[in-house]
Amino acid sequence: MNKDREKILQAIHKALQTPSVKPVRPDFNTSIYNPDEKNEDWAILFAQNLKKVQGEFCYCTDEKDFIANLLGLIKHKKANEIFVWEKELQNFLEITDVPFQKNTQNLKNAEIGITSCEYLIARTGSVLVSSKQNLGRSLSIYPPIHIVVAFASQIVYDVETALAKMREKYKVFPSMLSFITGPSRTADIEKTLVLGAHGPKELHVFLIDNNS
Questions:
Q1: 146 CB contacts (<8 Å, ≥6 apart)?
Q2: Using CA of residue 37, residue 42, residue 139, residue 199, what is the dihedral sign?
């Protein structure tokens, strides 16, 4: 037993005499994520990650295809109370057969809220919205179904890039930035996942291809 103890002490003594290797200083300007991911198609990466968080993705070849898919979803959900508050979206939908309301008074009756977004985050499948969009803070939260209309040119790889673009776009950050990652959820009660606890139960992202 004493010989074993002596060997251990000698090994410890020898180890303490060996100079330790100086750690390499980390490069804080380099992404911590696998750079190979940046070589992927960001639309595909976004769709995959959105699916992982129980969101729904619809690729649209153009605006006509978007309207057809949107009408199909509205018919499938049998929804009548559809709210759109952003002027650009209203102007676009007014020339279509999509029924919607512009008012902000009867939001309690809303079944679907349709909004645009600032950016789509491919790495996390998140949607970035802000107070600069004139969509209000309620329309993306209150209705049980939230539909996001976005263009392929709005996809960025990560949150860092999105925030940099927001600063470049507005110079000063808007008063509200919100990253929406899938439907609202909670597992507070008996660790059972429940969707729609504090917000929309469904999140649908319609991506219109405008890169071509």
A1: 112, 113, 115, 140, 180, 183, 199, 200, 202, 203, 204
A2: negative
* 57, two tokens: 């993705």
Which runs of E-coded beta strand occur in 41-81?
Answer: 56-60
What are the tens digits of pLDDT across the range 142-180?
A: 899 999 999 999 999 999 999 999 999 998 888 889 999
Which residues are CB-contacts of 56 (< 8 A; sequence separation ≥ 6)? 50, 202, 203, 204, 205
Residues 139, 177, 149, 134, Cα dihedral to 10°: 60
How far apart (Å, rounded) are the C-alpha atoms in residues 120 and 162? 8
For 113, residues 6+ apart whose C-beta sits below 8 A from its C-beta are 82, 83, 84, 139, 140, 142, 143, 145, 146, 147, 200
